[in-house]
Amino acid sequence: MLPQLLVSGVANGMLYALIALSMTLVYRATTVLNFGHGDMAMAGAYAGLVFLGFGLPFVVAVPLALLLLFVLGFLVQRFLLRRIMQGPHLALATMALAVGYALRGVARLRWGNQVLNLPRPYPAGAFSIGSVVITTDAVVMCGSVLVLLGVLLLLFRASPLGRTIRAVFQTERGAALVGINVPLLHGMMWGAGAALGAAGGILLAMVVPLTPDMGEWVLVRGFAAMTLGGFGSLPGAVVGGVLLGVAEEVLGFYLNTVFINITAYVVTILVLMVRPRGLFGRRALIRV
Amino acid sequence: MAEVQTVSRRVFWLVPLALLPLPLLLNPYQLFVAELVLMYVPVGVGFNVVVGNLGLFAFSNVAYFGIGAYVSGILMARFGLPWWLSVLPAGLAGALAGLITSIPALRGVRLFYLAIMTLAFGELMRWVYIRWEPLTGGSMGMSVPEPTLFGWPLDGARKFYVLLALAVAVVTTTDRLLASRFGRAFMAIRGNEIAAAAMGIPTGRFIVAGFAWGGFVVSIGGTMYAALIGHLSPDSFNLTELVLEFAIIMVGGLGSLLGSVLGAALLTTLPQFFMSLPGSEELAFGLLIILVILFLPRGLASLLAQLHPIFQDRYLRE
User: Fold this and answer.
1) Looking at the DSSP assignment, which residues form a beta bridge with residue B175?
2) Residue of chain A minimizing CA distance to B55
């Protein structure tokens, strides 16, 4: 049974990894934790649904949805967060939360509480290797996330843009001094975070029902994966996500099915109590 | 100067007095909404003590609220206690939950870390209600018997007055607490925790006290929920409820007792106008919070403070 659990756990975990990674990008670039991130993923899935509804093929509809969310994330940073960047942390986090809440309201106004699904662009099915059943959903999930991770890694490590981003991650003032437009980059990172989150939302909405409340589920798992991997660490977000996915399946099978739902909470609490910096994070310094 | 202040603040007693004729003036539905407002007063006040006055990002408020409601409901439905006898035990259970959630804060967990962790605690409690079926009725929820007070059924005007008395008691005791050395220590911790500790304030003890008081007060709100709604279900204590409670203190004014009351009044009555259109309430709340953060960062209380010095908050200084 264990190999089967590992396979489905890794497939879910890749999705968590994508979400945690997109939250970490925003967090690292702007030190704001996006409490509305789950709702942005939800909005991305609905945007995909709308574009598909126009009769567009999947390969056009999805990039359009991601683009829309990029613009949304950029605008949120530009017109809402930038004005209060110097303010208290609580105001920033609350602003992100409020944006997400408003998005949820918009989705519910338009679609109510009906349960929708994004149609898969591939046949749903499964094949088996030995005793392990692998669904095409799992293959597509892992494949898409791996491709996205690869693209991100290339961008980050081997492009001028990536160098700029890394400079901002290191020190904002230094980056600004050598001529990098830091506020613009902040906006871009919010856009990128929202678009990546939307990719996660779209992948999720193909396998589970799409409702306006999807965001909560996404947010909680993103937080747990980030915490487990170490807050602010990009590789940590990926590893944390995969480990979380596996832990949910394994604990859910061997201990109690409730663990499929509560592992994220338990992991968050335990990690912060026992080892607040997670697996790969750095110890947080408090400036007096 | 100080003498004038204490005398003039007694004016606030006119507010509950002015509310006394409400049961005669309102229809049953409007009275119910007024009672909801009274319920959210302690919920907001307790939340604000921790987030606003202590300045710690603890979002376990909905857990205290749910614990208060469930302890009250279980004592009534499973142990046959009358409602009024369940108030104190429920409050103490909430205070205990406050103590437990203060442990991470004592261990130095702060900012977003504390926010996520306390959020996780609140959600975990929801799964406790779902899974502890023999006591809580599981995800279907449980019915709570009609509340009674000294053998009298608690209905109509009587219920309103009891809830009003509880809300007033919570506000006045919290006002005394914030005016005491506790309140001053909270202010110091909020301003700069390390400086507060360096000045000899035992910050840990005051943090525990703040959390315990917050949990106690919010749980009182939970018992009012049990008396008012009559049915408890785990879904009533989810993250959406938490956002509502957070909006109350954010819109009312962080760290302001008056703000908690104003926020409770506004954000409880407002959704009544949005009931018919699902989603409009969330959209309105989201936009309202955005506007408040951008243009009124100290909340509605700061608007009143500009009108007359009596509304100025004594415990909140930036």
Assistant:
1) none
2) A90
